[in-house]
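@channel sequence for tomorrow's demo:
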Amino acid sequence: MFVSMERSYLKCSMLNTDLSLSSSGSEVNPSHSNMSAPPHPQPPAKGASHAAGDFSYVGIDAILEQMRRKAMKQGFELNIMIVGQSGLGKSTLMNTLFKSKVSRKSVVSTPEERIPKTIEIKSISHDIEEKGVRMKLTVIDTPGFGDHINNENCWQPIMKFINDQYEQYLQEEINIDRKKRIPDSRVHCCMYFIPPTGHCLRPLDVEFMSRLSKVVNIVPVIAKADTLTLEERDFFKQTIREELRANGIDVYPQKEFDEDSDDRMINDKIREMIPFAVVGSNQEYQVNGKRLLGRKTKWGTIEVENIAHCEFAHLRDLLIRTHMQNIKDITSSIHYEVYRVRRLNETNGQPNAQPPNTLVNPHTRCPLGRWDATVL
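structure tokens (generated this afternoon):
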């Protein structure tokens, strides 16, 4: 008993000595000290502060953090199709949008190969990561569109490609041993490039957008808008909007799919800017001491991201920063659902199956009028 009391006394003496040395400012070698560093305090779990002071707190808001973590692990997918005749800067604009070479220009060896005999559809996929968020971006190009003397029915290969992606997704979906997460190759958005003529839409433009607006989200853009004066640009944009209304063409964002008054207010501002007059460039220039993307001319530099020069920033915000998820939701719940209902009706051999491109209410399975929003 006396031995144990003596050992305790020695330990306390050593402990007091170490503490006195530390408090007096003398250096203490951690390797020779018997004391371990105190652990860092752990941050309280989400909702712990609420639970400590509020007994009525349940923690339902924690689901947002759970969804965020799951989404960060899975990553995101975005499939964009670019359509327009050659020479409108489609690849350059896509590279400017994502600040990387996501769309490559085709290199041809002979003049005969510069214009494909038929419309080719090429897909390029890239894995992009920004601040821990991963996204698989697929750019679908359509070289050869609108480059021939006779462009009749040139929209058909593009329509077939879009429907083929719906069919592929449908087959994966109805498979008995389907995958836990079905790869999504459906076209979420189609950017249609309009030549900067300054006059009106061509018959080809009207025909394409009229056909394809029923199966995919179309975002029209005026390519190389720096070739137009501001007055010409405004007149051209207004003319295009009137022609879209006159031909019953619903481009994205469609009025019928506004969820509430807040969405309607935001989307109305976007609809007033359609089509977006854009300029693309991969070159950086020094402007007022800053490095900016732009196009240098004899009379100055056209800044790509300056809204006073062009509407590239508004297009980027629509596609990436504000409406990306909404574009994917409409693709899944409207366009794909219309295709799925029609195909299942055909498979079941129903005599009243709707013909191709007929809009059907996904809830009542009834054919709609021209985007009848009242039943959606």
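heads up for whoever presents: The first helix runs from residue 2 to 23.
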